[in-house]
Write the structure tokens for this entry.
Amino acid sequence: MLTTTDTVHTVALCSLDISAIALNALLVYAIVTRLINLHDGSQLYVFVGACSHLGRWFCHLCQTIHLFFVCHSTVVLLHSFCFRLYILRENITEVKIPTSLVTFLICVLLYGPTLLMMVFFYSAFEYTPPELMRALHFEDYPTTWYPNITDHRFVIALSFVVILSPSAMVMMFFVRRRLLGAISKMK
């Protein structure tokens, strides 16, 4: 049975998700009908702000790091919940500090896949052709694009983001429920 906090959290997430889906659908409609009609499925990124003074490569690097670290934070959070559950389930009263090698291996296992996906995603982008920028009236803005969405680097990296983050959040919900159960048994 859901607690009051779980119910409020679920309602808040559902309402935010539904409004995000509706607004994203509206944005996609506006893009498809009014702004640009790219039938080949390519993705175009337009950067506006402070990073645009440093160049396209820097803007795209910042966007790549942000995208994958947001996804990575869910993995770290899931790892944290699993470790807490492990401590409570095993009734460990004294936690031994892991060796430097074990700590290094845990960091490699947690950061390695994210770093690899960031490299894939960043290496797949190209600078937008000048004729496309003129046609879209983006000459004054730094832009990058993915002209081939079937490029394996792009597909693998985007699949990592689209699949990992939501699945980690779902797993985290179940681990959290078990963690709350273990805590309630201790009382």
Notes: The mean pLDDT is 83. Residues 152-186 form the longest helix (35 residues). Strands lie at 43-46, 126-127, 143-146.
